[in-house]
Write a structure and sequence with these properties.
The structure is a single chain. By secondary structure, the chain is of the alpha+beta class. Helices cover 16% and strands 38% of the residues. A four-stranded mixed beta sheet has the order 1-4-3-2, covered by helices on one side. A hairpin with a 2-residue loop joins strand 2 and strand 3. The relative contact order is 0.32.
Length: 68
């Protein structure tokens, strides 16, 4: 029997530190991943959640908001 898995992603979307994290987060949002509220707050930000068809759970959080 295979147990369901959980994964946590912490993504920095501050473009002054590099563009990859911001692009990854944008793609996840566009594709519909990490849209559900995970019920957890980390570093003052809501952690988002995605559950796949195999009931594996993925959590994602932005570590640093982009500077205005």
């Amino acid at each position: 029997m295979i147990k369901n898995k959980k994964a946590v992603y912490f993504i920095c979307n501050n473009r002054s530190w590099g563009h990859v994290g911001a692009h990854v987060w944008g793609i996840l949002q566009e594709e519909g991943y990490l849209k559900e509220n995970g019920g957890i707050t980390f570093a003052g930000e809501e952690v988002m959640k995605y559950t796949d068809q195999n009931n594996n759970i993925f959590y994602g959080n932005i570590l640093m908001k982009e500077e205005q």
